[in-house]
């Protein structure tokens, strides 16, 4: 599709911006082009730092697209307010745990229990520590998780890791949902350490979640990390909010998927992936 000249851009800079001559000097068309702003996307691979992967001159240059939702904190998409725990001091962490413990005591009282009886004396503290552990994904940067586990490799066939166990907390009822996730990608000169696929899924699952968002977050994270030709993620999970309360349908399984790149556009690639995860 031809691009409208009035809105054409070069590296994110308006190609026709400030073309009029100025009393202070020549027009912008006569001056050197300004250096385009670097877009860090979701926080992967910063422009400097020890976690920046080093590639040889033979590496194929990959143009990094603008992120749909940039996150300067490196926590991934979307990461609303999660930087509060990421940047907390030891004193702030202790204060948060103490406040959470008091809230749990209030909950025990509200459901009609006696938080001072023997079996519940330490429950507020235990649950506060457990909940902070189960949501520790708010304190982990994806760039630190991936670190330097990005490698040049002349491999252009599917890479698939399946049956990754996942446990998370439903953000609607704060009860668990558990299942398995399969992650696949088609490399574009770069591959990711296999364990990092499971680690990416683990980081996102350790936050309050809905399964649909979790599935998409994992796919976008892999895409941002190594810019493969395509990414596919399928997750199957059982939700306690469906089995323990409400509709109470034990055994019901929720399946979600996210297809990016060639997995979305090429039916044969998508069918190969779906066939492999069913074996």
CATH superfamily of the domain at 149-277: GTP cyclohydrolase I, C-terminal domain/NADPH-dependent 7-cyano-7-deazaguanine reductase, N-terminal domain
Order of SSEs: EEHHHHEEEEHEHEHEHH
Cα distance spanning the termini: 41 Å
Relative helix content: 25-40%
Shape estimate: globular
Proportion of β residues?
Answer: 15-25%
Chain-averaged pLDDT: 79
Major sheet characteristics: 5 strands, mixed
The radius of gyration over CA amounts to: 24 Å
Protein name: GTP cyclohydrolase 1
Function: GTP cyclohydrolase 1 is the first enzyme in the biosynthetic pathway leading to folic acid.
EC number: 3.5.4.16
Domain GTP cyclohydrolase I: 102-277
Give a brief outline of the structure:
It contains nine helices and nine strands. α2 crosses α3 and α5 packs antiparallel against α6.
Descriptive account of the structure:
Residues 102-277 form the GTP cyclohydrolase I domain. It holds the Pfam family GTP_cyclohydroI. GTP cyclohydrolase 1 is the first enzyme in the biosynthetic pathway leading to folic acid. It comes from Trametes coccinea (strain BRFM310). Residues 1-11 have a biased composition (Polar residues). By secondary structure, the chain is α+β, with helices and mostly antiparallel strands. Among the domains are: 81-138, GTP cyclohydrolase I, N-terminal domain (GTP Cyclohydrolase I, Chain A, domain 1); 149-277, 2-Layer Sandwich (GTP Cyclohydrolase I, domain 2), CATH 3.30.1130. It is 32% helix and 19% strand. It has nine helices and nine strands. The strands form three sheets. It has a five-stranded mixed beta sheet with strand order 7-4-5-8-9, sandwiched between helices. The longest helix is centred in the middle third of the chain and has 21 residues, at 90-110. The chain is globular and about 60 Å long. The two termini are 41 Å apart.
